[in-house]
Each structure stands twice: as C-alpha cells, then as structure tokens.
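Quick look at the format.
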Amino acid sequence: DYGFGYTKKMWSRNSDELEVTADLNFRGMTVTKNYIVLSERNFRSRLYSKEDGSYVGNVAMPEETGQQCMYANKDAEGNLVIVTASVWTGGELRVFYWPDGETKTPVKLGVFAGAGDAARKFNVVGSLKSGLAYIYIPRAKSTTCYRMKFVDGVYQETEVLSFPVAEGKTASTYMPAVTPLDGTADSDFIIVDQESFEGEAAGYVTLVDKNGNAKLSMADGVRAGNGGISADGKCFTFNGAKYFMWNVMFGNVNGHLRIADVTDPGKFNTPATSEDIDSFLVFQSESVTSSSNGNGTGACDYDIAEDGSVCDVYIWLTSGDLLKTRLTKISL
C-alpha cells in the first residue's frame, strides 16, 4: 500500500462561476482546512466551498492599507496565511495568520521593512501556532529567498538562501516559487520559475541544497512538455509517498497540473523517454483555461482528509478555471 492509485475529477468552476474577472486582480489560491481561498490584489479575499466550489463569503481582513499584492497559503494545521507586499516598489512585507478561522480577526506575525520585493509565491512548513515553522518567500527578479523562522508563532530570524537560475540568465522572473522537501533547517528545496514572455528568463524546475547549489534539474519533456511553466509548486506526503506538484502552462491561458513522486530525490531528473517515467511522473490533470492571463500565472494546492483516506488536489489559473481532482488509495 503506497501512494495513490485511482483518481477522479470532482468538479471544475470557470471564472464566471467564481465571479473572478481580470479587473479584480486575484493573485493567489490556497485550500485551508475550512475553505478554498482566492486572494485579491486590493486587500480582499474570497471564500469558496470545498464541496462544490460555490462562493460562501469573505475573509475577515485586517485594517491595513498601502500594500499592492496579497499571496495566500496555509500552515501544517491548515490555517490561512497571507503575505502582503509591493513587489514593484519594495517597502514592507507583512505576514498575517488566521489561527481561529478565516472569518475571525487575524494575527499579524510581523512587519518586515525592506522585504517588500517578495515574489508572488511563498510556502510554509510546520505549524505557526505551535512548534517550529518556516516561511519561504523568494525575492522577485533575484537569486535569493527569504526564510523566516517562527517558534510557537513568534518570529525568530530571517535567513537569506540562494538559488540558481537557468543557464545564461542572471535572475529569476517576478514569480519564482520555492518549496522545501521537508520541514528541517537543512532541507533541500525545489525552485520553480516560469519562462519569461519577455525572454528574460527560461523556465526551470531544479532541486537545490540548503547552500543554493543545484543538485538535479527536471528534464524539459517532464517539466513542461511543449509549454512554459507557471510559477507554483508544492510538496506533500500521502500514504507513504512524497510528491511534488506544479502547474504547466501552454501559452498564457491554458494549463494543467502535474505530480511527480519525489520519495527518492535521485529520480528528479528522470527523462521523459525513460522506461521508469511512469513511476516518477505519476499524474496529469485535465486542462483548464483562463479568459485573461497575460502573465501566464496560477496556483496549485492539496488537501488531505483528516483520516488520510484521500487527497484532493487543485489547480487554478489567474482569471480562470478552478479544478478539483481526488487522489485515492484504491488500486488501479
């Protein structure tokens, strides 16, 4: 008994059904223990039912102004975390946390001066309520990532980690994502960056050690097929297997979700032509589309049942579709 077997599409919702249009500038998606959350650039966030994708209300937001972008994720307990920043102007980065649910007043975990150059993605490992946790926030158009350490929800320190960029390039795009393989201080991590439509950066997905040294890069045919990639990626463990999920974009309005088995990180560069490819690249969702998505962006997330029986995976495109697929332990 290992990993997932049978998969099933649960539902999909388009931008009209979600009431998400290009002018509202939605920037992030996450799936907490309670809801699906879409975060908007103008300091608002919406809540949707995990059962059917219907709109159910709004996140209780703090009284804050002056922040252009909001990015959403969750901690290990499934509680909502939102980072606000102004990627174009620098300035402050603020971290908010909803330990008592999305409709309750959040806790401000910190205001970090000079860190407002954060990219549009971040990842959390550990619980921000108790114990050790890290927030990984890559910087836009750079080669570095902030790693903020928290103990029992109290900020401790920020380290700056380095990551490589594609050959011939000097920096990432505005939207790299960094996802650690585990929650330890020595964890390897995966850097995901999309291909820039201005030709400034080539797409890549690379396994990196804690010192910023590239270990293995995902093969082109596995990473993206014939398209670029959307800058999002997450690692999760289900039924004894460790997985890495990421979005694949074709042009800037169509995409799908892929999942690789990274239980053995040594297989990270498995070629698309390898006879072992089916044991590494283990899932590809149906396609989703967006009505308006000039930057070719989106998000992905996972939601494991409390009893560990199933794992639901989601892909969302900016100003576009939201798709939910269920991974089960049922053998094929």
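Next, a different chain entirely:
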Amino acid sequence: AIHSAFEEEKTINLNGKYAVYDVFAGKYISRNASSIIYRHEKNDTKLFRLTKAVDYVKYTSISLDGTIGVNFYVEAVNSYETLSARMWADGEEEKTVNGVYAEEKKLWKFSYGVAAKDYKKKIYIRVAGVPVGEDEMPVVTIGGTTASASESVESYAAKISAEDRAYDVVSKMLDYCEAARAYFAGESAAPDESDITFALGEYRPVHTGSDVRVKINGFSLVLESGTAIKVYFSGNITGKTFTVNGSAVSPELIEGSVNDYYIEVKNIAANDLDNIYEFVIGGHELKIGALSYAYTVNAEETAGAAYKNVIKALYAYNVAANNYFR
C-alpha cells in the first residue's frame, strides 16, 4: 500500500516482471510490467497486488480468413524465436500448435479450426515456453469479454454487433454451422424454401474424356474448418496422369480397397467455394468446385431437407464471404 498527501505522479521500478493488480480499482493495470507509473490524488492511497508475470491470452478473435475457428493472441513475458501451445476442443485430444508472431501487435497468434458442425465446442489453449523442457506456462484468464483461455466460434460471434462490417459474413457462417450441426446430429429440419437453382447453374459439373482402365465414381465435399473436394475413381492407375489445375497429385488408396482411390483439394476457404478446379484423372477431365457439389445436391429430388439446408447455407456463406473480402 502506498499513501500520498499530495497530488503527484509516481514511478515504482520493480525487480523483475509482474502482473500488477489495482486492488481498489478492481482491475489489472498491467499483466507484464517492470515498472508502475501511476497518479496520486491528494491524500490518496494505492494498493497494488503483484504476482509473477506469466504468458497470457490478451484477447481472442474469430477466424475470418475463410476458415472456421478461433484465434488466441498471447502476450509473452520473454522474447522467443518460437512459441508453441497445446490446444484442443471439447471432446478432442490435445495437439501442439505453433504460434505466429504478429509484429504489429507484439503478440503471438495461435489459430485452431473446427468443423462447421462443431462451432459450439469450446476451444482451449495452454501455452508452453521455450526452450523445451521447461514447465508449461499457464494461460491466465483476464475476465470480462476481452480475453479468455477458452472460446467457441459461437460465443465469440455473439459479441459482433450488427454495425460491424463482419456481421453479415459471420451471421451466414453461423447459419451454415448450425445447418451442418443439425444435419450431422440427425435432427429433422424445416426445408429452406429459397431457390438457388439458377445461381448454381454456372457451377454444373463438366466431365469430358474417357479411359477404359479408370472409372470415375463421383465426388464429395468434406465439411471441415476449410472445405475439401474429393474425387473418387477405380481401376488400374499404373502409368496414368493425375493433376489438379495442372499440378501433379498422388492418388490416395481408400482404406480396405485394392483399386479404389481419390484425389482432393483441401482447405478451400469460404470465399473460394465458387472456384472451379480442373481435375485430370487418366483420360478423364473434370471441371468442378464446391458449388458443383451444391448444384448436384440441390437438383437431387431424394436429398433430404436437412442436407439441402446445409448446401443452401454454404452457398449463402460463400456470397457473404466474397462481399466481405473483396
């Protein structure tokens, strides 16, 4: 505790780095201070509580780079060339994530993506210091809405106001996530009556060429943090050519099969869902994209309402993402 009879500004130099909590104000004035600069009012008493500074999450943000996930921004006590963290979502195993130092913010950024259907899951972080072998340094929750050691896509999105430029793309992302959650949970769904048939017409799949030794079996979407397209085929692939947009790719053998394969385009961001990719599989040429699959499902009379809702929400998410990123 410090008392002063005069109105004055004071500086206290600390022997080390500390988190400084102003007891009377009920808040931290610094989480990583080597000195305290404060102002006294006349006949004023200050009471500070010091604890050893630790790496901590300063704030979080939702991922708006076209994927679905949460970013954690960590202020480190010391300078590191590299910094890693253990991250996980509810019900998942921990994994090591390497941070990226954001020079303009002087903070380490850790990103964790989730499948659309898992947007309600909390994501957790525990920072580990360098060099390897030191004890893991805890992440400290500051409180309020500015930072937390855990966050979900849903909980952060709820903080975005209608006046925010990102509001529309975030709202459409949540609509898509909820449609995916309901579908994968097997819940019944009222059909989305919007008609996107004309809009999807330009993404109709195009298949040319043929190959007597290789058969195209179809294609699908994988709805993860970033979307993936998989093209399935079977046959004798010896000596065959496989490319995506002119770049060579290696077929993956489907587990348990002897001659069933797939090739894929991974991590398609929301604003790239309307891209068309050229697949060459032996003598076959296919021009398809994520919205080509949406076209196929939308035109399929036997597709259930819940699945069509996912596809329509995905399309709306792409439109909003393009408007946001352009």
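The chain has five helices and 22 strands.

See the schema section for token definitions.
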